[in-house]
Amino acid sequence: MSGAAAPTVCCREIGRSTKPALVPALPRIIGAWIAFSLAVWALQEVPRGQGFVSLVLVLLVMASLPWLAANARRHRAQPGSGGERLLFAGVALFALGQIVFAILRALKPKVIDIADTTLAALGALARGGNPYALPIDPMAGGIANAAPLLHGYKYLPLMIAAYAPLGLPFGAPGIVLTNLLLHAATAALLGLLAARTSRAAGLAVALFYLSQAFLAHQLMTRGVNDLVAVLPLLAALSLVETRPGWTGFLVGLSIAAKLMPGLVALICLLPAPDGRARYAGGIALGLLPILPFLVWGPEAFLANILLFNAIRPVDDTAWLYGLPAPAAILARGVAVVALGAIAWRVARQPPALEQRCALLVLAILCVFAVGPDMHHNYYLWFIPPLALLAGRAALGEP
After folding, report:
1. Which pLDDT band holds residue 148 (cuts at 50, 70, 90)?
2. pTM for the full model?
3. How far, in Å, are 6, 94, 332, 336, 361 from residue 386 at the CA level?
4. Fewer CB within 10 Å: C terminus or N terminus of the chain?
């Protein structure tokens, strides 16, 4: 009699454990997605001249990071096979929508100066000219009465290389199509990073990222170039625990495309002590694309890359706009102290992936908050790793 009862109990237990956890998990994913989307929407909707509102929102995002990192680490909930199918359908739907949107934008592109100057730099280089010494940027990045030396290209050489394959033959449509590829690669990499925990987490993170229309607008309509610098950092995040040399190389490539966010990510991606020499060597190798242009025209290169960023004026997107100079000095001093604390934390004990990701977002936001402007394209620096945290936290233990 007891032998006959045991299978019944066993089957009931199996039934409990294998039923899709659709009810407890999917509402949390949906709730987290709504919260994440509202945060992105609120940040993008702040009008010019309201920098203090942007600062408050950035501080709120900063305050959420410890909770996000903790919940991302305590991964427990599973949406079951039915829930995974819904997540996959959502990812496929948003991916298809973005492909269609990119094609439509490529047919009739209206990119901004970021893309225009990159195309001009490509054309100058194809004709044998130095894009840092030629008048690539007629507005000199908004600096009034700028010296002729400051009218060159404002990004680093790897940015030119990234857009050359499609930008040279197709012009502005090539910028849009390159951004579509970068966007797809970013979504895939974020999903793979999260999928280390579970397939559901990978799908949730990809969904969180791809569902933000703001990102598609910046990339496909405006032609911003920030993912060229962000994508290597996400790849470095995936390798930091096992391949310090490759991690450093990817950080170097990011900086060789655009100074930020690579410079600030450098401290967050510091590996364990026994890998730091390889990390430094990798960074040096990644920076090599800069060398030919530095040798070609050092004065023009340094003026447009370093001097320009040192003297660019504060505009009305930043909360520092209109405040006396000591306010900016004090705010930037606080940011430097915060970055020093982050560097000390990472150097003292290499953090887990979730903590490292949260520190990366925090470090980027510290720089973003005290910069001379808070332009929308800079949001692409922190939204991808923030999506990684939010998507994984949605499946964390409540």
Report:
1. confident
2. 0.90
3. 48, 19, 23, 22, 7
4. N
**Residue length of the chain:** 398
Residue 261 preceded by cis peptide, ω within 30? yes
Residues 6+ apart with CB under 8 A from 196: 353
Eight-state DSSP code of residue 279: H
Do 191 and 203 form a contact (C-beta atoms < 8 A)?
yes
* Residue reference for tokens 């390889």: 278
Q: Name the residue among 205, 259, 208, 194 with its Cα closest to residue 230.
A: 259
Residue 38 CB: number of other CB atoms within 10 A? 10
Q: How far is CA 87 from CA 211, 384, 391, in A?
A: 12, 18, 11
Contacts of 357 (CB under 8 A, 6+ apart): 69, 72, 237, 385, 388, 389
For residue 29, count other CB atoms closer than 10 A to its CB: 24
- Contact indicator for 336, 371 with CB cutoff of 8 Å: no
Cβ(133)–Cβ(152) below 8 Å: yes
In this structure, is the dihedral angle defined by the CA atoms of residues 381, 383, 388 and 392, taken in order, positive or negative?
positive
Side chain identity at 134, as an amino acid letter? L
